[in-house]
Design brief:
The structure is a single chain. By secondary structure, the chain is an alpha/beta fold. It has a domain at 9-98 and 106-132 and 196-254: Alpha/Beta hydrolase fold, catalytic domain (Rossmann fold, 3-Layer(aba) Sandwich). The protein is built from eleven helices and eight strands. The radius of gyration is 17 Å and the shape is globular.
Length: 262
Amino acid sequence: MAINWSVREEGAVQLNDGTFMFYLQDGKGDPVLLLHAFGGSSFSWRNVIPHLADHFTVHAVDLPGYDRSSIPNRHYAMEDYTDAIVEYMDQVGIQRASFVGTLTGAMISIDLAGRYPDRVNKLVLVSSPGWTPEEGARVFWNWFVPRQPKGQVDPEAFGGVGEAAGDPADDAFSKSIRTRSPYWDATNHQENTRWDVPAHAVKVTAPTLLVYGETDPQLRREAKLLDLIKGSKSVHIPNSSMSVPTQNPDGLAKEAIAFLQA
């Protein structure tokens, strides 16, 4: 599928482990990095980028193993994704940035703000999970695993929690990303459901906006994250559920711009 972004620059950086990570960059101003969910790619931000690029220099990456980024030759923990983003920032000359992350991208943003607070200005966390490892295990075994035929990886089922938006073009593109390496995507979903979100969220000191679709399943964890991330606030985006960047990109961009510029 052709991508019709009008971007100022796109390319790839090579990480220390040899992985190539694709990025696109557009706009002018303070840097904002967009981090997609597992099972997706920078494609999910295509209708958000033009809004943000009117105000900021926007960087959207394909996380290692997804879309145009190469698949690493080793297992990645959540912290490896965070370190990959920091490596990217170092290579393109970004000392500090704000982050807009959705689902697993929000979790990576939380980890980055806790471990590298001097690299973070503000966070916009979209549909952020808030599970403990025990809660995450129930999500993995009760949601992901039963959707696998005879114990095999079904990339469409695994990705259904992530980027699927109900639009045929979005769903087809997302399925193509997951099909490229269903094993990579499946093991990553197991990794992110093991990650202790509350234990890391409490370390966040950057100004934080929590964003949820009005029918977002992650809303059940809103109060917990508001309590854990001191000074954070939340907004609900109408006409959207858990895939806010594709379901209501205009609404997401409006709230993100207002928060990041405040």
